[in-house]
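Example record used in the benchmark description.
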Amino acid sequence: MRHVVVAPFSNSDIRDWPPAHFRALIARFVADWDGLIHVVGAPGQALRAREIVRPFDSGRVVNQCGRGSWGEAVTLIRGAACVVGNNSGIAHLAAFEGVRTVCVFGGAHQRLEWRPIGVNVVTLSRAMACSPCHLHHAADCPFGLACLEEVAPGLVFETAIRLINQTPEEVFANVA
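Model output (structure tokens):
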């Protein structure tokens, strides 16, 4: 069965799309796509991942946080129809492996310098006058992480589905 990988965490909360947005994204995948959804992350992120996946049937949404080896995670990512994540190691790995990737990119860092790069990668961000802010913690943002809050789950879902449904020829045609 086809699967997508959702990576809701980075190593800095200033780069993390809100958990409620990830829940809404997963709900759209469950309702409008026929594959499995694997949520990945480190062992220390497992409790937060449970809060994201709790509303969903575990037969469709699998919490992989802290389970399995790094090699198993890499294999899962390589086989994904698409990977959706923040500006994180998972998004960069997926891009490097050539996996279709949607990266939700906040305003803390310079997007052109730090985004995942590849022909199968779409980076979604909200242009803000304060970006890049170079802040290190979400609590320091005076605007409530508007740069991430304003990236709509529907847009992320539609972008992922568009990537999933593209043929390799269509992907390369979009690059030219």
